[in-house]
Amino acid sequence: MLFLTLRDDPADAEIPSHKLLLRAGYIRRIGSGVYAYLPLMWRVLQKVSQIVREEMNAAGAQECLLPQLQPADLWKESGRWDTYTKAEGIMFALKDRRDQEQALGPTHEEVITTIARDMIRSYRQLPQLLYQIQTKFRDEIRPRFGLMRGREFIMKDAYSFNVDEESLEKTYQDMHIAYSNILRRSGLAFRDVQADSGAIGGSASQEFMVLAEAGEDEVLYTKDGQYAANVEKAVSLPPDAQPSAFTNYEKRETPGTETIEKVCEFLKCSSTQLVKNVLYETIFDNGTSVLVLVSIRGDQEVNDVKLQNELTKLAPKYDAKTVIKLAVPDTEAQAKWASKPLPLGYIAPDVADDYIKSVKNIAPGFLRLVDKTATDLKNFVTGANESGYHVVGANWGEQVKLPEFAVDVRKARPGDRAKHNPEQTLESARGIEVGHIFQLGTKYSIAMGATFTNEQGEEKPLLMGCYGVGVSRLAQAAVEQSYDKDGIIWPVAIAPYHAIITIPNINDAQQMEIAEKLYAQLNQAGVETLLDDRNERAGVKFKDADLIGIPYRIVTGRAIANGKVEVVERKSRKSHEIAIADVVSTLNQWIQSVNSEQRSQ
Amino acid sequence: MLFLTLRDDPADAEIPSHKLLLRAGYIRRIGSGVYAYLPLMWRVLQKVSQIVREEMNAAGAQECLLPQLQPADLWKESGRWDTYTKAEGIMFALKDRRDQEQALGPTHEEVITTIARDMIRSYRQLPQLLYQIQTKFRDEIRPRFGLMRGREFIMKDAYSFNVDEESLEKTYQDMHIAYSNILRRSGLAFRDVQADSGAIGGSASQEFMVLAEAGEDEVLYTKDGQYAANVEKAVSLPPDAQPSAFTNYEKRETPGTETIEKVCEFLKCSSTQLVKNVLYETIFDNGTSVLVLVSIRGDQEVNDVKLQNELTKLAPKYDAKTVIKLAVPDTEAQAKWASKPLPLGYIAPDVADDYIKSVKNIAPGFLRLVDKTATDLKNFVTGANESGYHVVGANWGEQVKLPEFAVDVRKARPGDRAKHNPEQTLESARGIEVGHIFQLGTKYSIAMGATFTNEQGEEKPLLMGCYGVGVSRLAQAAVEQSYDKDGIIWPVAIAPYHAIITIPNINDAQQMEIAEKLYAQLNQAGVETLLDDRNERAGVKFKDADLIGIPYRIVTGRAIANGKVEVVERKSRKSHEIAIADVVSTLNQWIQSVNSEQRSQ
Q1: Chain A from 64 to 83: CB within 8 A of any B CB
Q2: A379 DSSP β-pair partners
Q3: Is-contact B235 B241, C-beta < 8 A?
Q4: Is the sign of the CA dihedral A209, A214, A217, A220 positive or negative?
Q5: Could you tell me which chain A residue has the CA closest to the CA of B111?
Q6: Which residue out of A34, A161, A472 would a mutagenesis test of the B interface target, given it has the greatest number of B Cβ atoms within 10 Å?
Q7: How big is the A-B interface in CB pairs under 8 Å?
Q8: Residue A314 pLDDT more than 90?
Q9: Residues of B in contact with A130 (CB under 8 A)
Q10: Under an 8 A CB cutoff, do A62 and B45 touch?
Q11: Looking at the structure, do residues B382 and B446 belong to the same domain, yes or no?
């Protein structure tokens, strides 16, 4: 076996799982965000894939394999070519010898939709659910954390085609069950959370988060188990605002109060009595951009993803790809918009009326949005649209004109009351997203003309769903969730081997004989076993066994004098002396009991 | 199941297997040389992969997965970047968002060698044999024949690292056995042949050819089974030359005799008495090119691959990437070389001495090669280096100066006598190359500095071998070898399903009940079975079953009145009436007997 462990942490690895997989010889870096899966890792990936396969097949899904090279034309048909190659730029593209543009598939909605368009003709062929387990490519801005955010990674992606919403909902729920089974069977602690749909599009969407401190995602949830959402998507009730002491509407000089804290301190009021006005520039996927003013209660923050989604709704032909908050005093960024920049820190919610006149004659111009937390306020404090001045005791209407678009773009926060039950407060956890299921609806089928004839003989666009599991990411997430100072602690179901036989002294003929016999018997009986018969000190071999994280270590040491071997559980460190004749049956029983426990959870 | 068969042959498919896979719904074209593997095809590919995996594991190989994205630097280290991206241009390359060049792996010598360099330190870790089953990319000049010559295809590639030639030879032989087993178990008629090593480099190399009329390769073999080689590599004894009637050396006027036939007719001599002189331009991978004159007996042809190899040997720093035969009267191509072009059709073997003076002052100039068939001749006829003139009765020496490089570049032909036994003559067959094994030696380990410490404590370059199976090509080759007018006839071992149950009339409750029961029982017992319960006429369903080529068709038709079903063997068309209670055991027995027959062949 190609086996080499490293004593020291590799310099470029940041999180524990990345360090451990490198040190224990599971992976090797070949390029930025690109790794070789060595034999031990490949076994883990195969085990994860097999669990995925079994659960997908059980849900009636059919396995296939779609091309990684995708003609650009397909992406132009769906309207995503520019978004993926330019605006976000996360898709690798290349030109072939005939100068034809090709994409390296980060996802396969376009390819599967063109197949559906070709092959699905009638409702009698529906529903269809297809999946593949495949290497995907993303030209990440910042590849990091090993397999967590790589440029080349293994995904299971599935796509469903349904006649109507009800059928789609059914498939979506089937996938929800399958995904829960996959994670449970893999031995992972996880949470399924409501999620934003992002660039994939569509309506309902849920993420499956493996809980781990190093997770890139924040999850908000309630302890009653009734609510969990990605922070990007989470909703909550804001804390109550304090009643305002300002009953008269007047303009006040408030020098040097560009921040909420400073205004509150100066005016001796609560930030819940303020309407703050935040200026954004948003860039749409067709290249045009718009200035956006968002008014929100002073103690609350804008959720950029929600804002992006609201802006996309307002300009339904285009997607808002980025929102950039313009910071104080970002006069330069504003200069391209208007000759006289807005007084950041002192902007009024209804600024635009006079400001718009000074806006240069460029495309769509200026949008005013107000969050619900702000519309609910009375006698509030807000900017006077003049540097160094605020108004107090203001009310929406004549005093301050209400912005034209009322939206909910507030960021939910830990400690907020839950919407489903105000007695519950939101808690925060870190998670690693390993699965994501989407109801896409007709976004791709309409764009690409994938239709079917329904029972009434009418031609209808197919309803679609898509469902992804990050296979390589899941494998690393398992390590991130389960390790100790000595190394990896694999869940039994996805460990590369169930057991490792460590021979303390290979010059002892009896040790060798017992070890080799057990090795053959265990593998024969389906207990996947490694044999460490290297000419190394026992201590080195014990350390390596701990580092690579095999669930059960069998030591053919002193106990063999009594016809026994020592079996150590990696996770609990519990040591058992087991009669040599019972080792196979005992291990088989342990493994089966762990696996069936996870299945039935 | 996503299932759709087509009545008509697709327009763009040229060979039977390509047409059948498209018509039967196994594959769909997504782009030039790029196909989606639909669920039926994916099952075939999985079966082939599983056989490959079992045989590789049995040979002690370890599975891994290497990246498809490969940094250009690795290819520059091995010296193949220019060859693969420019001279041959068969590698897709792209630039990432940081403007770094990346290759899309057509093969993995560079990646595996960099891993070996990193992880293999001592002879105690050797030998190592690693493999992967993976999608590869080649920007083919002319993608065609479906999966036969695609731009994206599935390969099993393996790489070995050995301490010495003897160990490498052992691994090479192990792989030879494994490959023979793979093809036998897949149910294919094949031949292993000696092969040229091509751009991969190295010494010994053998190809595994699936025999089929549409094969792109020609194989020459003897009926005694002692010899088989790819035509590019094949050797043989040329037919004996006829003794020359020209005993006096003289120059003759031979107007209008640019071709061998015309000279022979004009001079009333045999083509075996002639030395013909063929002019080539060869381009090396560093961009320089050379004019090459090859003298060979008049009835023989030059083998371009052998010529290329000889030229590479003569210029060991560079590879001769192309040889272009300059045709009569290609004065234009010659014009870039010399002010006065050579008289094609009348060139003399020793032309260069005066010609070289007129060659323009450009790089390496001119090479003269002579094949053994020519050096053996006496009193021969050859060109006089003057348009319209030949010499007769010539001999090497003072009359005609022998070219400086004697080589064997003759093309072996069917009908030639075999070298190992002149009683045997070479026969010709067409084949599809599905496997190729190479002894690479130290080409990559020296270029990339992959060394180990041997038992004597010396640092040595690793000896390498590489071993490839075209998994997707093998699957299509099976169809090319086994079909009839009605469709595909899959070998049992790699058929997507073993059996298909066709219900002639789905409105007959008894037929449905028996079919569904059998379907469940068969699958339970490991007989992979499809159920065709579509609302179609029986004839349509029978046709589809034949087209997709499932080995056994079970029909729940009239015979059920007697407690029986009809079972039809796809290959032989034999029909059996089998008691319903015996169907599972009978099919299981048939399948096992076919599979074990193939294993033990």
Answers
A1: 64-71, 74
A2: none
A3: no
A4: positive
A5: A30
A6: A34
A7: 158
A8: no
A9: 2, 39
A10: no
A11: no
Q: Does A455 touch chain B (CB under 8 A)?
A: no
CB-CB under 8 Å, A92 with B130: no
Q: Are residues A528 and A380 in the same domain?
A: no
Alpha helices in B398-537 (DSSP H): 443-448, 471-481, 509-524
Residues B314 and B456 in one domain: no
Over pLDDT 90: what percentage of chain A?
77
Only one residue has tokens 């390769």, namely B217
pLDDT digits (tens, 9 = 90+) for B563-585: 999 999 999 999 999 999 999 99
pLDDT of residue B339: 66
- Looking at the fold, whether A513 and A465 belong to one and the same domain comes out as no
The verdict on B119 touching A (C-beta cutoff 8 Å) is: yes
**Structural domain includes residue A574:** yes
Given A407, A424, A453, the domain boundary residue is A407
Q: Nearest Cβ partner of A64 from B39, B104, B141?
A: B39
pLDDT band at A309 (very low <50, low <70, confident <90, very high): confident
pLDDT for A466-525, tens place per residue?
Answer: 999 999 999 999 999 999 999 999 999 999 999 999 999 999 999 999 999 999 999 999
Q: Which residue of B has its CA nearest to A61?
A: B1
> Shortest Cα distance from A559 to chain B (angstroms)?
30
In this structure, the answer to whether residues B30 and B178 fall within a common structural domain is: yes
Q: Chain B contact for A532, CB < 8 A? A: no
Q: Is A125 on the interface with B (CB under 8 A)?
A: yes
CATH number where B355 lies: 3.90.960.10
Does B329 sit behind a cis peptide bond, omega within 30 degrees of 0 on the bond before it? yes
Which of the pair, A288 or A232, is modelled with greater confidence?
Answer: A232
C-alpha closest to that of A565 among A487, A495, A513, A488: A513
Domain with residue B504: its CATH number is 3.40.50.800
Average pLDDT taken over every residue of chain B: 91
B360 assigned to some structural domain? yes
Output the CA angle B195-B198-B204, nearest 5 degrees: 45
Q: Which residue of A has its CA nearest to B94?
A: A94
Please check whether residue A178 is in contact with residue A592, taking contact to mean a CB–CB distance below 8 angstroms: no
Q: What is the pLDDT of residue B331?
A: 64
* 3-class DSSP state of A224: coil
Same domain? A256 vs A403: yes
Residue B391 has pLDDT above 90, yes or no: yes
Residue B191 placed within a domain? yes
Residues in chain B within 8 Å Cβ distance of A74: 30
Give the CATH number, domain containing residue B463: 3.30.930.10
| Structural domain count of chain B | 3
Give CA–CA dist A542/A539, Å, rounded: 5
Single out the residue in B407, B442, B469 at which a domain terminates.
B407
> Are residues A260 and A394 both part of a single domain?
yes
Q: Which domain holds residue A281?
A: 250-407
SS3 state at B336:
coil
Tokens for B404, please give them: 């400086």
Residue A352 is predicted with a pLDDT of 59
Q: Does the residue B414 lie in any domain?
A: no
Name which of A94-103, A211-220, B336-345 the model is least confident about.
B336-345
* Domain identity same for A394 and A254: yes
Q: Residue A363 pLDDT more than 50?
A: no
pTM value is: 0.91
Contact B114 A30 (CB under 8 A): yes
Return the minimum-mean-pLDDT range out of B191-200, B285-294, B325-334. B325-334
Please determine, for residue B312, whether its predicted confidence score (pLDDT) is greater than 90. Answer: no
Burial of B298 (0-12, 13-18, 19+ CB in 10 A): buried
Residue type, B122: S
Scanning the structure block, which residue is given the tokens 């030209």? A139
**Closest in A39, A67, A119 to B62, CB measured:** A39
In this model, does residue B359 exceed pLDDT 80?
no
What is the DSSP code string of A57-95? Answer: HHTT-EE-B--SEEEHHHHHHHT-HHIIIIIS--S-EEE
